[in-house]
Design goal:
Number of helices of chain A: 4
Distance between the termini of chain A: 95 Å
Structural class of chain B: alpha+beta
Helix content of chain B: 25-40%
Shape of chain A: flat
Oligomer: heterodimer
Largest sheet of chain A: 2 strands, antiparallel
Structural class of chain A: mainly alpha
Order of helices and strands of chain A: EHEEHHH
Strand content of chain B: 15-25%
Radius of gyration of chain B: 34 Å
Helix content of chain A: 40-55%
Shape of chain B: elongated
Distance between the termini of chain B: 73 Å
């Protein structure tokens, strides 16, 4: 084999744009990733469960709605950070590790902590 | 053991430093952690530049074939760099130069400073292979005991030996030594830190790795790597950032216009640490994943049809590509079917975060310009830690999936190397990376046992004089007897650098008969043919054969000199060669002959003979003609030892009138004919330096202006003689001319061990240069020769460039472009550049 070859990476067909379009014949007006459905479902169910456990359900509808709103926004943020190269699982993993990083030693500017001692009050 | 300079505040504290290094133990070339063991090898450098497509394809295939035994394993490729060891180089060169000449110490120090200024980085590529892990039961035992048992170590060593022997056969790898692993760990853990090394005076201990502290702010793009230097409180910090390669473009393998993709970063002016972690799998294994992915694509197509929606076109394209790939995985040969799935990261650093990020952008641009996607994701701490051997794969985004052949086409171990790495430094490579190019003029004769002839070709201004002086001056410092023939004369300035050890010999003022052809070719001596075990009769036979050959060469040289001196009308006469040959043969080839005898014999050979005798006699009356046509009296005879007694002898011949290129010989003037002959004889005169001293004594004989050898029989005989004798007489003979065809005219292209090509513009000359360099002709390399002189290009800067580029083929057949910068003292000694300035005006 001495002739030049044309080669393509398998990445071209590896990342498939999979979307749940709905259950026929009902078609959603939007197409969301399967992972988005899974994530949002988990977050909503988890939030509702937590609300129930801490006593927000039933009887505190506004608070329940707020927690749900935050859950959905948090899910949207995670989805926004994820790409076809970095999945949701990796986004969560990165976040978990980033908050546990060894931090640089603080560089203390000691001049901020100096207080002038005066023998007598300023006139 | 802890690093002696480690500051207490930097000591590893599990609470402060939650991610301790995973590495627990090093056994031979195996690094061991709680969960993995990796055997490390060094990949030998491969040549890429100036090779043909079939050669490059063979290189890629050889690398891919070498990886086949590793299918089913995780494989690491770690590209790193180390500064050129100028101290070791100097020590070695001192050992190789037992007869060191004047000013050795100062020169050697200056050379080391020059090497340091070049900031050359030697590329080193490690190949790591994961070894079979322990059984779960054994792993639990290990986890409980927190150590490895000898039994398991024995198993790992045995496993490594099996893999190592296979890789050694196929890829010619060598097992990493402890020194190599120290270097790898230092460059991985102390990434970017200047001069951070692991202790050399004690066995490697994994606790030594705690001397460096890695820190980072959440969601920042840089990691800070900090260490305190020994004996001082000086703290070094580098900001390190890592890029990861995204989806690659469709690529041609091999690509004639591009270097291998893993060597793109070699061109950057700063070092880059490469790391690839790949799981190699056979075609049938990978085909299962491809089938599942194809099913997902088909499901999506079906879903769109069910919803009566137009499906995105990419599905059909992806399905087609997946089917082709799956078919290749199942049905093609192993090398086509195999797959590499993994991560490719590039790490750069700077003294500030801004510098690190700027370097990252520059690195990314290299790939994005070639349609690669490059990621610079968050999670830099986890991503950068993957540089360190045995660190677990914590960052799993940006995973690449490609054919094994595409992975192999990256060829991380391709390096721009030329030279023997032991001789004086000539320059630095400028093709793919800055590597020191050192050339020992006598490596060919002493080690490679081949011809000592080097061919140099370059147009005016290409830097031939500079190159010759770069070869000559180190040789004089090393105590090698050096002779230079430089007709135009600027190299005579080198004598000023060695006032007590040099001699400037101007042939203009030499006694008549100095260039007598009968004297120029040395008489063989019997003791030169004596060898242990060779019978006396055989020695005598070889000696007599050599004498007969030398006699014949003298007659040829005399014949060519006589024909070259005669006017065209006489030289073309059919009777002339016959009469000349007869008279020269009657004179004989013994050393005592001269044209005086030939002229006397011609005068007795009828009217035409008398006419020839008159012409030669008249020519001998001119001072320059007398140099070769007159007889040298016995008391004026000098031996080659006397002529070349100085350590440096520079022979000049200023004022020669040579014919313009392309002028028909019939239109040559008398002076042009005579000076052409003189130049050929001057080269023969200089070549006598080869035969001085003993046969094993090193000699360096440099000759310029070879263009006056016109391819006649004497030229070829001269070329063949120095080609063969240079090896026997341990002589390095660099020969310089303006166009490569002159070398070919002497039949030297097959004999030369080294070829150096400078700036050439003419297409034919560039094609001939390709032949000399043994690189494919007509594939575009010719154009590179026109760019070797930066001052001759339109894009030159306002100031004249102080360097010249040369394409060099060394004794190993490696070809690279080398940038040669003349040191200031040499530049001052031989500067030939015409300038209009105060100095020039003052002298004129």
């Amino acid at each position: 084999m001495t002739q030049p070859l044309r080669l393509r990476a398998d990445d071209d067909w590896w990342h498939v744009r999979s979307r749940w379009l709905g259950s026929p014949p009902w078609t959603f007006p939007f197409a969301a990733r399967y992972t988005a459905w899974a994530l949002m479902s988990s977050l909503i169910i988890g939030t509702l469960t937590a609300d129930y456990l801490i006593g927000l359900i039933p009887g505190h509808l506004p608070l329940t709605m707020w927690t749900l709103t935050f859950a959905v926004l948090f899910g949207a943020l995670l989805l926004r950070l994820s790409t076809d190269e970095i999945g949701i699982r990796h986004v969560i993993g990165i976040g978990w590790r980033e908050i546990r990083l060894p931090k640089p030693l603080p560089c203390i500017d000691r001049t901020q902590h100096l207080r002038m001692h005066r023998a007598s009050p300023v006139d | 053991m802890r690093l002696p300079w480690t500051d207490t505040s930097l000591k590893t504290d599990p609470e402060d430093h939650p991610d301790r290094w995973a590495l627990r133990r090093i056994v031979g070339n195996i690094t061991i952690s709680d969960t993995q063991a990796t055997a490390w090898y060094l990949l030998p450098p491969e040549q890429w530049a100036y090779r043909s497509d079939p050669q490059r394809m063979a290189t890629v295939m050889a690398f891919a074939t070498g990886l086949l035994p590793l299918l089913g394993r995780r494989v690491y490729l770690r590209g790193t760099t180390r500064p050129f060891d100028h101290y070791g180089w100097a020590e070695n060169l001192t050992t190789l130069s037992p007869d060191r000449g004047p000013g050795w110490d100062d020169w050697l120090v200056g050379e080391q400073e020059r090497i340091r200024d070049h900031a050359s980085l030697e590329k080193t590529v490690y190949l790591g292979v994961d070894l079979p892990l322990w059984t779960p039961g054994r792993r639990m035992t290990e986890w409980a005991l927190r150590r490895t048992t000898d039994r398991e170590i024995d198993r790992l060593i045995k496993s490594e030996a099996d893999i190592g022997s296979q890789l050694s056969d196929r890829l010619h790898v060598t097992a990493a030594t402890e020194l190599d692993l120290r270097h790898l760990l230092a460059r991985s853990i102390g990434v970017g830190l200047p001069g951070w090394v692991l202790p050399q005076d004690a066995p490697l201990d994994v606790q030594d790795l705690d001397g460096v502290r890695w820190t980072s702010e959440p969601y920042k793009r840089c990691v800070q790597v900090t260490a305190t230097h020994p004996g001082t409180d000086r703290v070094s910090t580098r900001f390190v950032t890592t890029l990861t390669l995204g989806r690659p473009p469709e690529m041609t393998v091999p690509d004639a216009a591009q270097p291998p993709w893993m060597t793109l970063t070699d061109r950057l002016p700063f070092p880059v640490e490469w790391c690839s972690v790949t799981d190699l799998s056979s075609g049938p294994v990978a085909a299962g994943e491809a089938s599942r992915k194809l099913k997902v694509i088909r499901d999506m197509q079906a879903a769109y049809h069910e919803h009566e929606m137009d499906e995105p076109l990419e599905f059909e394209r992806q399905a087609k590509a997946a089917k082709v790939a799956e078919d290749a995985m199942r049905n093609e040969s192993d090398i086509i079917a195999a797959r590499a799935h993994g991560w490719y990261t590039l790490t750069v650093w700077g003294v500030s975060a801004e510098q690190a990020l700027e370097r990252a952008r520059e690195t990314a641009r290299l790939f994005t310009d070639r349609q690669w996607r490059v990621g610079h994701p968050y999670g830099q701490y986890a991503l950068t830690r993957q540089l360190v051997p045995c660190e677990p794969q914590r960052f799993s985004g940006y995973k690449r999936r490609m054919p094994l052949l595409m992975h192999a086409a990256g060829l991380p171990h391709v390096a721009a190397r030329v030279g023997d790495a032991r001789g004086p430094v000539l320059g630095v490579t400028v093709g793919a990376g800055r590597q020191i190019a050192s050339v020992d003029t006598h490596y060919a004769t002493e080690v490679a046992e081949t011809s000592g002839v080097s061919l140099i070709a370059g147009a005016n201004g290409s830097g031939k004089s500079a190159l010759l002086s770069m070869l000559a001056v180190p040789a004089v410092h090393r105590g090698i007897s050096t002779t230079i023939l430089d007709p135009s004369g600027p190299l005579a300035g080198l004598c000023g650098l060695f006032p007590d050890q040099s001699r400037h010999l101007s042939l203009n003022s030499a006694p008549a008969g100095t260039l007598n052809p009968w004297r120029l070719i040395p008489q063989p001596r019997r003791h030169h043919f004596e060898r242990d075990g060779v019978p006396t009769s055989e020695v005598d036979r070889r000696w007599q054969d050599a004498i007969a050959e030398v006699h014949s060469d003298r007659l040829e040289a005399a014949m060519d000199a006589a024909l070259g001196t005669l006017p065209w009308s006489l030289a073309e006469d059919k009777r002339t060669p016959a009469l000349l040959r007869q008279s020269i043969r009657e004179t004989g080839g013994a050393p005592g002959g001269s044209f005086r005898i030939v002229i006397a014999k011609l005068a007795q050979m009828g009217e035409h003979g008398k006419q020839l005798a008159d012409e030669l006699s008249a020519a001998s009356e001119a001072p320059r003609g007398g140099l070769y046509l007159r007889h040298l009296d016995a008391d004026e005879l000098t031996t080659a030892e006397e002529d070349f007694a100085s350590l440096l002898t520079v022979i000049t011949f200023p004022g020669l009138q040579t014919p313009a290129k392309g002028t028909d010989r019939k239109y040559w003037r008398i002076a042009e004919r005579r000076d052409t002959v003189l130049m050929q004889l001057a080269l023969m005169f200089t070549s006598r330096a080869i035969y001085t001293g003993s046969m094993t004594t090193r000699k360096l004989v440099l000759m310029d202006e070879l263009r006056l050898f016109n391819g006649d029989s004497a030229s070829r005989a001269f070329g063949a003689r120095i080609g063969f004798d240079s090896r026997k007489w341990n002589a390095a003979v660099p020969l310089a001319t303006q166009i490569p065809k002159h070398h070919m005219g002497m039949g030297l292209e097959a004999l030369a061990s080294t070829v150096m090509i400078g700036h050439l513009e003419h297409a034919d000359a560039a094609g001939d240069a390709c032949d000399l360099l043994r690189i494919p002709r007509g594939t575009g390399y010719e154009a590179t020769f026109a760019s070797l002189n930066p001052n001759a290009t339109r894009t030159r800067t306002a100031a004249q460039a102080s360097y010249r580029d040369w394409v060099i083929r060394d004794v190993f057949g490696q070809v690279e472009r080398v940038r040669i910068t003349l040191p200031a003292d040499l530049h001052a000694a031989i500067d030939t550049t015409a300038r209009v300035g105060a100095d020039t005006l003052a002298t004129t």
